[in-house]
C-alpha cells in the first residue's frame, strides 16, 4: 500500500513543479509530518497571497497539505499523509510554522504539528500486522529551509 502512495505523491510533486512560477518554492527539512517523515523535500504552490497547497516526500513517507498565511512570519494549516513505522496507516494534523525571514523569502523555518494518527504497531516494513484501526493523538516538530 505504501509504494503506490509514494509513487502517487512523487507524480503529484512532479506535476505541481511542471507548472512552477514565481509563487512556488522548494524546501528541505527534518522532523515529523511536514516533510514526509524524518528527512524530506517539500514543494509549495501558492494559490494566492494567503493560501497555498503543498506536497512532500521523505525517507519514510509522504504528505499533502494546505497552508493559510496568518501574517508575514506565521502560517497555519492541515497536513495529511503516511509514514512507515510511525503513522503507517496515515495521519491528519493541524500545524503552525514560523518563518525567520518573511514568508516567500529564502530562509529557515520551524513548526509544530498536533493531530491524530492510525497505526497498527511499531513495525518498519513488511511485517505481518492486524488492522486494529486504533486512532491515537500525536504531535511533532520540524525545521526546514525554503529556497
Written description of the protein model:
The protein has 147 residues and is mostly beta strands. The chain has one domain. 12% of the residues lie in helices and 55% in strands. The protein has one helix and eight strands, in the order αββββββββ. The chain has one helix at residues 2-18; strands at 24-31, 38-46, 51-58, 61-69, 74-83, 87-99, 107-118, 135-146. Strands 1-2-3-4-5-6-7-8 form an eight-stranded antiparallel β-barrel. A hairpin with a 4-residue loop joins strand 4 and strand 5. The longest helix is centred in the N-terminal third of the chain and has 17 residues, at 2-18. The N and C termini lie far apart (32 Å). The relative contact order is 0.19.
* Largest β sheet strand count, sense and barrel closure: 8 strands, antiparallel, barrel
Total tally of structural domains: 1
Mean pLDDT: 82
Order of helices and strands: HEEEEEEEE
Q: Specify the helix fraction band.
A: 10-25%
Q: Total number of β-strand segments? A: 8
Question: How much strand content do the residues show?
Answer: over 45%
Number of H- or I-type helical stretches: 1
Global structural class:
mainly beta
User: Termini separation (Å)?
Assistant: 32 Å
Keywords: Signal
Signal peptide: 1-20
Organism: Pseudoalteromonas phenolica
Protein name: Outer membrane protein beta-barrel domain-containing protein
Amino acid at each position: 500500500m505504501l509504494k503506490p502512495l509514494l509513487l502517487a505523491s512523487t507524480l503529484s510533486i512532479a506535476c505541481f513543479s511542471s507548472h512552477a512560477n514565481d509563487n512556488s518554492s522548494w524546501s528541505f527539512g527534518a522532523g515529523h509530518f511536514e516533510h514526509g517523515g524524518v528527512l524530506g523535500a517539500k514543494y509549495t504552490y501558492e494559490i494566492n497571497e494567503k493560501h497555498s497547497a503543498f506536497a512532500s516526500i521523505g525517507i519514510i513517507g509522504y504528505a499533502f497539505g494546505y497552508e493559510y498565511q496568518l501574517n508575514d512570519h506565521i502560517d497555519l494549516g492541515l497536513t495529511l499523509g503516511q509514514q512507515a513505522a510511525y503513522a503507517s496507516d496515515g495521519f491528519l494534523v493541524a500545524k503552525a510554522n514560523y518563518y525567520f525571514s518573511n514568508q516567500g523569502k529564502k530562509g529557515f523555518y520551524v513548526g509544530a504539528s498536533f493531530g491524530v494518527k492510525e497505526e497498527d504497531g511499531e513495525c518498519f516494513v513488511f511485517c505481518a500486522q492486524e488492522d486494529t484501526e486504533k486512532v491515537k493523538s500525536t504531535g511533532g516538530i520540524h525545521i526546514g529551509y525554503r529556497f
